[in-house]
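Teaching assistant here, posting this on the class forum so everyone can see the example we discussed in section. The complex has two components, and the goal was to see what a joint structure prediction looks like when all of them are supplied at once.
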Amino acid sequence: MYDFEIQKPGSIADAVSAMSGDDAQALGGGQTLIPTLKQRLASPSTLVSLAGLSEMVGICKDDAGRLCIGGATTHAAVAADGSYAGLSGLASHIGDPAVRNRGTIGGSLANNDPSACYPAAALGSGATIVTNAREIAADDYFLGMFETALNEGEIITEVKFPIPEKSNYQKFVQPASRFALVGVFVAKYADGVRVAVTGASESGVHRWTAAEEALNANFSADAIAGLDAPSGDGMINDLHGSGDYRAHLVKVMTGRAVAAAS
Amino acid sequence: MPKDGGIGASSKRREDLRFLTGKGKYTDDMNIHGQAYAYFIRSDVAHGTINSIDTSAAEAMPGVEKVFTATDFEGVGGVPCGWQVTDRFGEAMQEPKHPVLAEGKVRHVGDPIAVVVADSLAEARDAAEAVEIDITELEPVLNMKDALKDGATKVHDDLTSNLCYDWGFVEENRDAVDAAIKGAHHVTTLELKNNRLVANPMEPRVAVADYDDSTQEHTLYTTSQNPHVIRLLMGAFVLGIPEHKLRVVAPDVGGGFGAKIYHYAEEAFCTFAAKAVGRPVKWTSSRSEAFMSDAHGRDHVTKIELAMDENGKFLALRTDTHANMGAYLSTFAPSIPTWLHGTLMAGNYTTPLIYVNVKAVFTNTVPVDAYRGAGRPEATFQLERVVDKAAREMGIDPVELRRRNFITEFPYATPVAVEYDTGDYHATMDKLLEMSDHAGFEARAAESKANGKLRGFGIAHYIEACGIAPSNLVGQLGARAGLYESATVRVNATGSISVMTGSHSHGQGHETSFAQVVADMIGIDEQQIDIVHGDTSKTPMGMGTYGSRSIAVGGSAMVRATEKIINKAKKIAAHLMEASEGDIELKDGAFTVAGTDKSVAWGDVTLAAYVPHNYPLEDMEPGLEETAFYDPANFTYPSGAYGCEVEVDPETGKVTVLGFSAADDFGNIINPMIVEGQVHGGLAQGIGQALVENCAYDENGQLLSGSYMDYTMPRADDLPMFNVDHSSITPCTHNPLGVKGCGEAGAIGSPPALVNAVVDALQRAGHDVTHIDMPLTPDRVWSAMNS
């Protein structure tokens, strides 16, 4: 780890101000950033800790019935909430207890690891990513592996999830890291079904629109069984699975998520 | 002795009190006043020429004591290899120099190039980034068969090729085996890989070295399975330090699995540097360094052919193996694919003709050496896989085919140079079938099918050679060491005992089980006895712990020394009771005169030995301390039947291990609980190899699985509840305890059982799959089902 300054702002406004400094880096729960620093793979001059910002911690519902989760809320808190079963189920299987009790939803979405779970939930729910500056629809937020619509210094303060009629997340784990080799989040809303896939693609989290169309017509595992798996082109091909295998798993996990959706 | 103590009792592991309460003293707990820290700069390319190293900027940085490179080690020996294999043409193997720090070339990712020694680790690491190293990358040598082609890039320019040796065994059988295969009713052929593994002990390697210039004495604390071997290799071959000026201490060691047998460059470096900079030097491996500097295991590519008559009787066996040595020869590397592998190819079977060919190959990868089982898992895997395939091809039940070929008469001289003293393979097979409810399998398979899953059952029957080894024999085979073991039994005046053993415990529980043996022999409480190990200044010269040798060889030495103690104590007792020595009996810690009620307690005799007021001083020295060195007459031959039951998810290819049964014959058992724990650990590692573990390189020689993000260790939820039995006992005939050893069995027998089970599951479902290379990841199983 290289030397760095740490700042612990007391408000979002102070945090935004601190983030304007040269080489400042936001620190959420630190579950990705701290190991990266320890390996000397990053050298920010200032870490701006968001974990202590009380106005960014907590879960409530807004007038539209959306579940609103503060950006510094831990996975464990989301797992325990339960008012959005598919989302709580997903959060309860992220990493291990240490990760779940330190890692935050804002940190995960800002990092946008292509194998992380939360991006699938946000995209699959059509969530709104709220920052200190604006609101961003999930469909506009995820731009590729580790890439998002966030600007330099922009902080995720809250994420708003419309609660679906039915939902489920199925994760087939990469055996070593236990991140998602393929994870599929399915959510059925009154105005349509959304299917979001993480872990599989070289482009990061994405929607499987063919499955959404099939499920809009018939929300059942049979509807998925009748589909061709997506193409393996553009899927991640590594030690743990070929692109074709991941593509196949997308179909299998989607079917299972639909079958398990509640 | 009641069996709440002594031989056969499941005495609780006394060492666990300190291990489980954080009071163990590991090498990293050793901190010497004024110590400096070493940071190794390692190659990030697989193969390259070092053009220049500029340390000047680094040496000017804060806290830096010195930056070392190969030039500092001119006049110092290379890291030695402890075994010379002779090839099938009678020539010695090719043996490259293994410098402490890279000389002119780097040969694998992780090869140490330079070392910064500084006041703190952070300063050393900062300065390391200021060392300028210019390397021209060379084509990496990775594929073993390509490496042997004419004109292939060479890992070592001064060798004639990348071939370390071409070994044939038994060479005289080569033509006869060929003829038998050509004339056989049926030949089953299988090509397979034994995947490369990283040992991953929980405790990474550490070295702390100190030098006292007033006495010219070096002390090295190191994470070793055999401190005396390190003292000999490093003292005599690398640094030229005589034994009496070099103390090597391996305190509590958190797992070895083979990877801590070898003498490593970091140990020599710290010892050398402590003298050079005039202060203690400490190095602690990071986990990332461990992946690229601890010796790896396995990595064989094999073609095996099994010839049979029309009844499935094995007529001949031929194997052709390429064994990866990595970039340099680790301490025992040449012996693993040869004498610890070829000699086990008979397995449990009466195959009369066997020929084993092994080509050992240098590549630009981390050196490969013994890992739990060492050669024997590789032998067992290929044999038990080909036997299973043969059963399917011949239409004979796999259990029945094995039974038809089992050795039933002992001693049995195999055609591959070893003689099994005892065994009862039908008994272990019977036990396994009972334990695993083999008869109920079809019903369980039907249940799985109803749930959309594919169930399979696989068997393996293994043999291994433990109790390594008769010194004169291994000397003939190329070992540059003896393989006896030693013990000193020091009885104190009040009767308590310290046993100094040359064995080393790094998780095996010797402090408990060894004490049980001595307690049993004398008839005193185990708590009267302490086992001392791991310090060359305290223990007699011993060869350490590996190859499941500790109880069979180290335990035997301890028995011999204790027998000497008892003999002398009887003489003292006879004197005290004014009786004839021949009439003295020792039972339950008391000496009695046979047929009388005259008795003296153990403590009275030990006190007399040290306070010899009433003592036969004219005939005997006072004191009660004896040493024995035990050189075994033969290897020991544990064997066992392993059964694995799996379920395969046909949609994802994921294998779930539902049950694993192990029926072992370890000979006599000292502590059943510890034996069971050893088998559990071995099974976890064997299942790990078969199911999840894979050390992989990319085409540039970069380690793809260089951290736990990509190298999968087996976890509790990958493993079933184990069903373990060791009630089939055919005692070893040639050591005093009748013991065989149990440390590696689990890792040897389990991989073929698991792969056989998965192949069984797929074939039952109609898939034409005869083999899948380990690890059987979901991707590989799914691909095999859908290819």
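For the discussion questions: The first helix of chain B runs from residue 16 to 20. Residues 210 and 247 of chain B are 10 Å apart (CA to CA). Think about how each of these relates to the inputs above.
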